[in-house]
UniProtKB/TrEMBL annotation:
It comes from Lithocarpus litseifolius. Transmembrane segments: none annotated. Pathway: Protein modification; protein ubiquitination. It holds the Pfam family Skp1_POZ. Gene3D superfamilies: Potassium Channel Kv1.1, Chain A (3.30.710.10). It comes from the Eukaryota. GO terms for biological process: ubiquitin-dependent protein catabolic process. Residues 1-24 are annotated as: Disordered. Residues 25-76 form the SKP1 component POZ domain. InterPro entries: SKP1/BTB/POZ_sf, Skp1_comp_POZ. This is SKP1 component POZ domain-containing protein.
């Protein structure tokens, strides 16, 4: 390291975000009216319900998480 430069082997300062040119890992959510939403894992894991669902060892990351009390229109609002 020249001139006191700090070289970080990971160029992305936030490892939960996808680096340019890569695809973020996605989580599938299924609403009460059977609408399917693909959400970035980093965003989905901010919700404790989603996080605990996928932390269960018997649940595969590809399993759609059912949201029995959430409608598709509620998730699609901005």
């Amino acid at each position: 390291m020249a001139n006191g430069e700090n070289q970080n082997p990971n160029p992305n300062p936030n490892p939960s975000e996808a680096t340019p040119g890569t695809t973020a890992k996605m989580i599938t959510l299924k609403t009460t009216n059977c609408e399917i939403f693909e959400v970035e894992e980093a965003v989905a894991m901010e919700f404790s319900t989603v996080k605990s669902f996928f932390e269960d060892d018997t649940v595969l990351a590809t399993t759609p998480m059912p949201l029995p009390n959430v409608s598709g229109s509620a998730l699609s609002q901005r």
